[in-house]
Protein 1
Amino acid sequence: IAATTANLAITFAYKGEKWKTIEYYKQALTVFQELGSSSEQALVYGLMGETYWGLGVVEEAINHMELSLEILRGTNNYYRIGDALYVLIDILVTSNSTEKAKHYYEELKAINTKTDANNIKYFTKYAEALILKFSNRIKQKAAAQEIFEQLLNEELGFEIWNNVVLHLSDLLLDELRVYSDPEVLCELTKLSD
């Protein structure tokens, strides 16, 4: 029943009915809690966090991602921990909570040293670049741009690739506004191809 309810939530998410998605995730979560299934609870908390983020309900997004992470820390599933940290850092940085994001970035770096999984390495590099991008220093923004460009040369999953392109484009647009350099426009055009 819980899996079916969670699948219904995913169906509503694809349809863009995010509040209905949350309703079904809550129902699935209740059943998973009754069953004592912590792995599934962590998954649903994370999915709810991402859905709340999509709705712009940032505090609920952060709370649910932290609940997911709290459960996942009790496992050795570095991929799921890394993924939760990646999403949480993204939410925090883009909602101006960079100092809190830096704390989670340190945790992600520590996980990166425990595994040779490429996706964790990419999550870590992305988080570093994102934090640098939101700095007030031009030097750090330039370092973020360099990291994002390096990541584009890797075999990334669609979601992280899309985020890298989005943030790199944003940095290039800032540069174009300041310098009106046609070379920057060429770089932007290449990104959109």
Protein 2
Amino acid sequence: ADRYDELSRKTNKTSKEFEVYHTLNSIDAIEKAFKDGGKAVLTQNIELTKTMTLAKDAKLEIDLNGYELKISNPEKSSARLIKNNGNLTIKNGQLVNEKIYSYGIVDNYGTILVENVKVQDNGSYDGSAIKNRNGKVTVKDTEFTIISSTGYKTDDANKNIKFGNTSVYSDGELVIDNVKITTDSERAYALLV
């Protein structure tokens, strides 16, 4: 706080006007970034076991820096990696969901930009890698790989089919630019709007 007070006197800015920077090298560091907002850079691959939530008025920009942020064994089987209520940017790396029976990776209620990201979603619970719930989603220069699992029987055909999550399901505003979607699901849509 003293450093911000000193800078405030020199620059006529309040401490709230200074950008908060985070180095993301642990789950604790990621939790702090989601709590405080600001700008953050991943410095190693990180595996999460619970959902990270960004508050309604918060703004956070995460540079994955070529690394991978993944959820593989969540405390709740349906947990998503991120619940966004604020303004979130994720860029330059990989988002991975290895939990087979999950609903996806991002649950969006705010504004999110996903740019230059490889998204791999192994979920097969009729969810979506990115679920937009009346918010705004912008996806640019991004590649989705949806990997399905088998073993469910349909009611009408009584055969095994491949279930998989939709890449983006949107009940709100959706902007897509230069996006590649690969899926082997026999049931899920590439996009659902």
